[in-house]
Amino acid sequence: MRSLLADEESRHSLWLRVRRFAVPPSMIESVATRRRVGDWAGACAAAHVDVDMDLRRAARAFGRELAARVRDDLRHLIPDLLRWHLPRIAPAGLMRPGLTMSLATYGHVHLVVRTPPAWADGGQRTSLALWEPVGCRDGPGIHPHPHPDRRYRLDLHRHLWDARHTHELGARSGARPVPGGSPLGGAECLPVGIGAAVDRWTAEAGILLRAEGRDAGRVAVRLGSRRMLLLHVDASAGGAAIVGPARPRVARTLPVLPDAATWVLPDLELLRAGLIDPGELHPLVAAALTPGHLRPARRQPERPGLVECRGAWHRIGLVDGVLVPLDHDPVQLRRESLLAALSGSPLPCLRFIDEAYRCPEDLDDIRARLDHGDTAGALSTVEELLGPDVPLCDGPLRDAVDAAAQRRIVYALFRAGLAGSRPGPTAGTPRRTGTRRRTRHATHTPATKR
């Protein structure tokens, strides 16, 4: 029982972190502004989505009709909503790396969204491309898994990214019951795990089979790295039942229930547990799950702070963009700064400001924003805490900013095709042995034999 509760708390903690940092309000507002004027490419840029396709080239390669369908889907794409629903991994809630997910299919051609490999995930950016099974190399760089993943397919879940289908989220997530829904047979016999959307499996498996051109058959449900269940589905009769555990060899030959249909929508879990307010959700998600809810105004951070200094409480605040003690005169501050430089003990107020520059109180939030690619939000938090002219002194804050910049460089190298399947020297400390071997080989091998 304790293990189940711990797993549930861990899952809730993960998704609370994702909902707080992964898609900031500034991104949602920026995307909405660009979509209102029909700028789908600008909306993608605002949501940190790189577009690796040329629609004119697609028209020449696949025909004008297919290119027109792709363009229509891109105009209705809500990239920040897509980012909101992308699969995540513990412990930080970053996007699952190295995935290619199908958003829409046009015969044999797929519109896909890709996440970079883990070693190049700086900035948490994604990319859009067109993919076909044979002879296709989309976009810059070399993706480790270019084929669409059977488990993570969003072409059957357009309500997670398509403006024309967002109203379906309430019913597809189970927030609103669907009339005539059939219960899943055999669910009481097998433990399926916390967060499994068992009551939706029958309907979602039917959608999957119809997309495969069948009305009945077996569907594999993946519940973990070593747990697979087998469902027998009769879509025409609207019924399904758990057959039992599925062997990996058998599961490879069967349709796989998409991950988005396997688990309860995280937002719904958080709402039911009372851990999140509808106003903290994406506006379109809140409208679908809690109709009529009014989004509250943003709360401003409380400033200034108070520090106990020599038996009294002193104020610390921003003056001309710099964090200063408000209850000490300039002459005293100069004298105390000089004494501190001569190895004396600085005033508690000065000590507090120096510590704030090196390791501010909201450092964990700043790191989380940097990890999720919200550089603007991280810098805004720093400015609110320390002022716009804050010096980046040696310490944890500067280390976090430098590490985020280093990760963005590695991602840029990956995008440019200058980094292969593993990070180069810019991603961390190079392996000396490998570097020496490459240098020796380059020095002693004649150019004509390379």
Describe this structure in words.
By secondary structure, the chain is an alpha+beta fold. It is built from 18 helices and 13 strands. The protein has helices at residues 2-21, 25-36, 40-46, 55-62, 64-76, 79-85, 169-173, 198-211, 248-251, 259-262, 266-272, 283-289, 330-341, 348-358, 363-371, 375-386, 396-415, 432-444, and strands spanning 49-51, 88-89, 94-95, 100-106, 109-114, 126-131, 184-185, 216-224, 227-234, 239-245, 305-309, 312-319, 322-325. The strands form 4 sheets. The chain has a 4-stranded mixed sheet. The model is unreliable at 424-450 (pLDDT under 50).
Summarize the structure.
This protein has 450 residues and is α+β, with helices and mostly antiparallel strands.
Task: Describe the structure using short key phrases.
450 residues; alpha+beta; 4-stranded mixed beta sheet; 13 strands; 41% helix; 15% strand; disordered C terminus
What is the gyration radius calculated from CA atoms?
26 Å
Q: Work out the strand percent.
A: 15-25%
Helix percent band: 40-55%
Number of helices: 18
- Strand runs, count: 13
- Which structural class best describes the helix and strand composition? alpha+beta
Largest sheet: 4 strands, mixed
Give the topology.
Layout: H1 2-21, H2 25-36, H3 40-46, E1 49-51, H4 55-62, H5 64-76, H6 79-85, E2 88-89, E3 94-95, E4 100-106, E5 109-114, E6 126-131, H7 169-173, E7 184-185, H8 198-211, E8 216-224, E9 227-234, E10 239-245, H9 248-251, H10 259-262, H11 266-272, H12 283-289, E11 305-309, E12 312-319, E13 322-325, H13 330-341, H14 348-358, H15 363-371, H16 375-386, H17 396-415, H18 432-444
Parallel strand pairs: 1-6, 7-10
Antiparallel strand pairs: 2-3, 4-5, 5-6, 8-9, 9-10, 11-12, 12-13
Helix pairs in contact: 2-3, 4-5, 15-16, 15-17
